[in-house]
Design brief:
- The structure holds two protein chains of two kinds.
- Chain A is built from 24 helices and 17 strands.
- The radius of gyration of chain A is 25 Å and the shape is globular.
- By secondary structure, chain A is an alpha+beta fold.
- Helix content of chain A is 35%, strand content 10%.
- By secondary structure, chain B is of the alpha/beta class.
- Chain B is built from eight helices and ten strands.
- A ten-stranded mixed beta sheet of chain B has the order 2-3-1-10-9-4-5-6-7-8, with helices on both faces.
- The radius of gyration of chain B is 20 Å and the shape is globular.
- About 3% of the residues of chain B have low confidence.
- Classes of the chains: A alpha+beta, B alpha/beta.
Chain lengths: 688, 317
């Protein structure tokens, strides 16, 4: 979440009038940073991870399980912990940091949209030293233990992506509040579900107002043996008449066979694992943005962990589209449901969606890869071009700036401050694409950064560390081997959809580039600066874009064709032409590691992480989504009717808490008696 | 008469599939052989193209793809050294200044390499290192790891590997070679020295005989979690880092080199195959291989990686 400035937040009717001003000022601020930072060079690789937690109230003997809405109290407890703050950690948004330096600063905690959520980041960014990569898991465990220590005995920070019973009828939060409040107008969750900081309820309310109705988060329900069909979401109340938006469900907002949700909290209340990288300069940042983009859907499917919504099993495995719909502020005109009259254009995607642009200066970026339906604000693009920005980057920002700012503070409109980036960030940080390209802050103190956002949070810190480290190693391989993952953006969009399917990790097919390697550099290329005009040989002619990629399963993409062919769970047809073999992302990472000086113990730990990912991709181990489904399906109280009762949820959360406690103790998972756990974690970290 | 041959791969880091380890092949020289082969093929094509079209690059550039690009076009003879392929040093160097990099080289003294003359290895080391310094345009390397012939870390369990290792290699030759490496370090060409495949006993014996201790011991073990405890202990006590590698010790056997340069379907056509064919005639013996890797410090990016190999041809009169 962005900065939590205080002030008078404008309601939508007023905010709308100021949207153009904010965009204009935002562009000026962007150009100011661009001019300051475009020549910034040689920033080190620094990176950071963000882990988000749900806070639950759970005890063995109480069959209920609730989300705790004590976020503010927990953050206050963390901020008041002098040992933590003097160690460089704490809560920056609630307390000015003392600037105390510390050998290894303690973690930092942040509020999130959901009042039942918490975010924690390392006290300082990580470097590329391999030994540092091994500190990530320990730091994540430390964060979890610090968080737990500032909670009540019955409260636990857990890393499930969503709370399975959020929005169920009856009591699901502690404390409990009545639904149908003025901000969210949700018939399932109270306004108090959101962080009370004015920014958050305003964000939710303005999305709803702009849209002209409540958000519609509909997820297909999983059809089990005894699920009534057609299935009508039994929790929908068609007889509410408190707000105009209560008509939504009477107007078809809740179709058959879909779990229906109606508030931002159902999406933005999800936990994810995000990784941010600092690039050496803007060129490398743009390259990483493009090259990581096609990997987004693959990592989404591989980290799938979201099979339950509002007390029902869903027919999808991941959170992505639900968040997308939960913050979709498009009007009926923008959605194409009505002819354009008041709005400027039809917009194909939500503000939260897969990327729509490639931005690199790489010569391998072919025009055919670009999104043919990209909407941009031509005036803004012209201003950026006038300001000296190049075509591609100007197009990128002119696309992000088609959106309205959602939360505007009156105080910020008094005068334009070019030493700040608040107006730029207002638009930038409410464009939730699966990658984010981040310019340096106004003081230019850090470099150009790229954020990788699609991954789902995993139940254990071991898994979270594994995926974080994997992505770091992938970026190093991309830059070292000059890998090329380009496929058309519309194919990345299709992959994002494909990643949602139940067990997409096993059965899904994804468009993926066949040959990642650059053509052999001609010997006249030399290092940059050699700048000799000597040609070597004629440029290799490029074929049709469609020949550059083909459909692959996750196993083949991660482990390579040869491995996928030999592993039984997802057989790949033997192909006479072995030149068509895809090497696999893990073998590429291993080739990178083979070329580096790494000590034996470190390499062993890194191999463990790669091994987890290898086994998840091959199907040998399950995703969290599969494990949760298994846990529910085999629970004696599950009625095979798609409904996940309070008792089943209680036991599921109890299992997750028990796993977390074992992980904290570091004594393995043996003897927990949790159904299917061995298929989730195998023999890793002490085994099951 | 003896002729030296210098083989080179150029920068292989963006060279594609040859860097990817094949499934199950934990130790392999395929990276070297594949990348040599691909560099030969590319050089033939590119230099033939330049020869035909000049440096303006006009013309349709049909290089003769039948491998019959004349040797004089794509290789180069300088004094008694034949460069295969020709190296254009104008294109040497790294993108940023040398201080930004960690450069590691690994020098393989080969089984077939000459040890008869005491200074042969020193000559080889100096020749190999100077090629790397020239290729990367740097004054020194950060780490020189030396691989002696006949060493491995094989066995069903790591204890056994350590025991077997104690009997391998030639202690005397290794100890006799070391002062030459120490001289490179004293001259400032190398910051640190390292060794490969030294088990606990061999390492202990070597340490007794050297002035400058190695800072690194590279080992290849099947399961990297099972390093033999005596080795871990000794390394810790001596401040030696145990690093992982996947190179085969016998990285360029004589037969492989012959095949690479011969007239066969995978050969570069440098060596004659019998009386009838053209090419160099005589007995070709690989002497050494040097692998170099330049990594951008602070960013973990490999910018340049490649190999040189030295061989000696005893020409038939």
């Amino acid at each position: 979440m962005g900065l939590l400035a205080l002030g008078t937040a404008l309601e939508w009717a007023d905010a709308k009038k100021q949207a153009d001003l904010v965009r204009q000022w935002g562009i000026k601020q962007l150009l100011a940073i661009w001019n300051k930072a475009k020549h910034k060079e040689r920033d080190a690789l620094l990176w950071g991870d963000e882990v988000e937690y749900l806070v639950v109230v759970w005890s063995e003997d109480d069959q209920r399980v609730l989300v705790s809405l004590r976020q503010a109290d927990i953050l206050k407890a963390l901020a008041n912990d002098t040992e933590l703050t003097s160690g460089g950690g704490g809560v920056p948004d609630l307390q000015a940091t003392t600037g105390a330096s510390h050998a290894s600063p303690l973690p930092v905690f942040h509020p999130e949209f959901g009042r039942f959520m918490l975010e924690a980041t390392p006290g300082q960014p990580w470097g590329i030293e391999f030994k540092e990569l091994l500190a990530v898991e320990a730091d994540m465990k430390l964060r979890r233990s610090i968080a737990k220590n500032h909670m009540l005995a019955t409260e636990y920070p857990i890393t499930l992506t969503t709370f399975p019973r959020l929005g169920c009828p009856g009591v699901f939060s502690d404390p409990s509040y009545p639904v149908s409040g003025p901000k969210l107008r949700s018939q399932f969750v109270p306004d108090e579900i959101a962080n009370p900081h004015i920014r958050f309820p305003t964000l939710a309310a303005n999305i709803r107002s702009r849209r002209g109705r409540k958000v519609q988060v509909n997820v297909p329900v999983f059809r089990d043996e005894k699920t009534p069909w057609p299935w009508k979401d039994p929790t929908v109340n068609y007889d509410l008449h408190q707000w105009p938006e209560d008509d939504d469900v009477r107007n078809g907002a809740a179709p058959d066979n879909f779990i229906h949700m109606d508030a931002m909290a159902f999406g933005m209340g999800s936990c994810c694992l995000q990784i941010t990288f600092q690039a050496k300069n803007i060129t490398e940042g743009r390259q990483m943005y493009d090259q990581l983009s096609p990997l987004g859907p693959i990592l989404l499917a591989l980290t799938a962990a979201t099979p339950i919504y509002k007390g029902f099993l869903a027919d999808t495995d991941v959170r992505w589209n639900q968040i997308s719909r939960a913050v979709d502020d498009r009007t009926p005109e923008e959605l194409g449901e009505k002819p354009l009259e008041h709005d400027r254009w039809r917009i194909p995607k939500s503000r939260y969606a897969s990327n729509s642009t490639y931005i690199s200066t790489d010569h391998r970026l072919r025009p055919e890869y670009m999104d043919p339906n990209l909407i941009i604000d031509e005036d803004i693009k012209a201003k950026l071009l006038d300001g000296g920005m190049d075509e591609r980057l100007a197009t990128h920002f002119a696309h992000l700036f088609i959106r309205d700012p959602l939360v505007i503070f009156a105080e910020d409109l008094e005068e334009l401050d070019l030493n700040k980036t608040d107006h730029f960030e207002n638009i930038q940080s409410t464009n939730w694409q699966h990658m984010r390209f981040k310019p340096p802050p106004a003081d230019n103190s850090i470099g150009w950064r790229v954020e990788f956002r699609p991954m789902e949070i995993q139940i254990t810190d071991f898994e979270n560390a594994a995926f974080a480290v994997f992505i770091v190693l992938i970026t190093r391989a991309i830059l070292s081997f000059d890998l090329n993952f380009y496929i058309p953006i519309v194919k990345v969009d299709e992959n994002m959809e494909a990643a949602h399917a139940r067990d997409a990790v096993l059965d899904g097919k994804f468009h993926f580039r066949k040959n990642l390697f650059p053509a052999r550099a001609p010997r006249s290329a030399g290092p940059s600066g050699a700048n000799t005009p000597t040609p070597s040989r004629p440029a290799t002619p490029v074929g049709p874009v469609e020949d550059e990629y083909r459909l692959m399963g996750i196993n083949e993409i991660i482990n390579g064709t040869e491995y996928a062919r030999s592993s039984s769970s997802s057989p790949v047809k033997p192909d006479a032409d072995h030149d068509a073999d895809f090497p696999g992302l893990i073998p590429i990472v291993e080739a990178y590691l083979d070329s580096m000086n790494i000590d034996v113990a470190t390499r062993c730990e890194l191999a463990t992480y790669l091994d987890l990912i290898r086994r998840r991709a091959s199907g040998e181990l399950w995703t969290a989504a599969r494990w949760i489904r298994h846990f529910v399906a085999t629970h004696p109280r599950y009625g095979k009717d798609s409904a996940v009762s309070e008792l089943v949820t209680h036991d599921l959360v109890g299992a997750v808490i028990a796993i977390g406690e074992r992980e904290q103790k570091g004594c393995g998972f043996k003897g927990l008696g949790i159904n299917g756990l061995d298929k989730l974690l195998g023999e890793f970290r002490g085994g099951c | 008469m003896t002729k030296s041959i210098i083989l080179s791969t150029g920068n292989i880091v963006s060279g594609g599939p040859s860097i990817i380890r094949k499934n199950g092949a934990s130790r392999s020289n395929r990276e070297l052989t594949d990348s040599l082969r691909s560099n030969f093929a590319a050089a033939k094509e590119e230099y033939a193209y330049l020869a035909v079209n000049g440096t303006n690059g006009n013309g349709n550039g049909h290089a003769d793809r039948n491998g019959s690009t004349p040797l004089s076009v794509w290789t180069e003879q300088q004094d008694s050294v034949l460069y295969v392929p020709r190296i254009n040093w104008d294109f040497a160097g790294l993108q940023e200044e040398p201080s930004q990099y960690d450069v590691t080289v690994k020098l393989f003294f080969l089984t077939t390499g000459s040890t008869s003359c005491p200074s042969a290895r020193e000559q080889h080391a100096r020749q190999a290192l100077s090629l790397v310094l020239k290729e990367l345009r740097i004054p020194k390397v950060d780490l020189l790891v030396v691989s002696f012939p006949g060493m491995s870390f094989d066995g069903d369990c790591e204890w056994e590997a350590d025991k077997q290792n104690a009997q391998q290699g030639e202690d005397e030759e290794e100890a006799a070679t070391w002062p030459a490496l120490e001289r490179l370090q004293r001259e400032g060409l190398v910051k640190n020295l390292g060794i490969a495949e030294f088990g606990s006993e061999k390492l202990a014996r070597l340490l007794k005989r050297v002035e400058v201790k190695p800072t690194v011991d590279q080992i290849n073990i099947k399961n990297c979690c099972n390093v033999p405890p005596p080795l871990v202990e000794l390394a810790k006590e001596q401040g030696i880092e145990l690093l992982v590698h996947n190179d085969s010790t016998d990285v360029l056997p004589k037969g492989t080199l012959r095949e690479l340069l011969g007239q066969g379907p995978n050969g570069a056509g440098v060596l004659a195959d019998g009386e009838a064919s053209s090419g160099l005639k005589g007995d070709l013996t690989p002497q050494w291989v040097i692998k170099y890797t330049a990594v951008v410090r602070d960013r973990g990016v490999i910018e340049n990686k490649g190999y040189f190999a030295g061989a000696e041809l005893e020409e038939e009169a």
